[in-house]
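for the writeup, i need someone to sanity check this before i put it in the appendix. the sequnce is what the collaborator sent (i think, or maybe the updated version? ugh). structure was predicted straight from it, no edits. if anything looks off just tell me and ill rerun, i have time this weekend
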Amino acid sequence: MDAQYTYSIIIPHKNIPRLLERCLASIPEREDVQVIVVDDGSDPGIVDFAHFPGLRRSHTEVIFHKSAIGGQGGSGVARNVGIEAARGRWLVFADADDFFHPSISDAFDRHADADADIIFFRHDGVDSATGEAVEINTSRNRHLAEFDRTGDEKNVRYMIWVPWGRFIRRELVREHSIRFDPVRFSNDRVFSVKAGYFAEKIVSDPATVYCNARRTGSLIHEGRTDWTAMSQRFEVDYHTALFLRSAGEGPIFDRVVAERWKELSLLHRWKARRLLPRLREVCSPGEVRRVRFEETLRRAFSLLDANRRKRNLLKSLQG
C-alpha cells in the first residue's frame, strides 16, 4: 500500500467481528484515509478468518498479530503495530466496539492541513446491544468545555486518557517515540499523557464525531475486584506521575495515584500498605494523609454495616 494518506485509523480487535464490521461501516471510504485493523490473536472458533472484516475493503490493511506476554499485551501492543504501519499525517484511534458519526467526514476535510499537534473532539455514548443513547462519563467533554471557556490546557493534556476522539500528528508520535504500554490494563495512559506533554499546540473542535458503545465484557470494567489487575493500573498511574513530576508539571497526578491506592487498600489492606512508599514518592504529605483517612473511615463504615447486617440476620433467625 504505497498511497500517501492524510489519516490513518488504527483499530485493535479481538473476538468481536460483528462490532468491528459496524465500526468499519462508520468510516467513509476515501482515498486520503488509511484504515489499519490489527487482530490480536482472535479465537478461530469465534472469528472466520477467511471472511475477516475489512479484507475486501478499499484502503484497508488487516494485520494478524499475536501479542507477546502470553497474549496479555492486548490492545496496547496491537495499537503499536498499527502505528508502525501508519502512513497518514494524522493518527486516529478507534476501539472495535465503538464507531464514528457521519460528522467524521467533515472533520477530515476541516483539519487535513491544520497546524496543531492534537485536535480533540467531543463524543457521546450508546448501549452497544440496543443502540439506545446512554449517559456517558462526562469528564472528557467537561475538560474540553473548560478548555474552550478558560484556555487552561492542563486537564486536556493530562487528564484525557482514552486515545480515541482525537487526531494526533503522526510526526509527534514518531519524533518522541510515544507508544502504548504492553500491558492489559491502562495501556493508553502513558501514551495519552506523553502526547499531551510533547504537543506544542492542541485544538478543541466542538463537533461530536465519535460514539463510545457500552457493552458487558468491555475491558474498562474488567478486573475491578482483582488485585493483579488493579495493581497493574496502580503501577501505570505511578509511572505516569513520576514522568509528569520529572517533566516539571508538578502534582497534577497526585489524586489519581492516591485514589487508585485507596481502591487497592479496599481489596487487600496489607498488600496496599507495601505500596505506601510509592504513594509517598509521588504524592504530597497532605494527599497521603487525606486518602489514608478516607480509607480508614470507609473501612470503619463497612465494618459497621457488616455488623448491622449480622445483627439483623440473627434477629430474623431468632424470630
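The longest strand covers residues 202-214. The chain has a mean pLDDT of 89.
thx in advance!!
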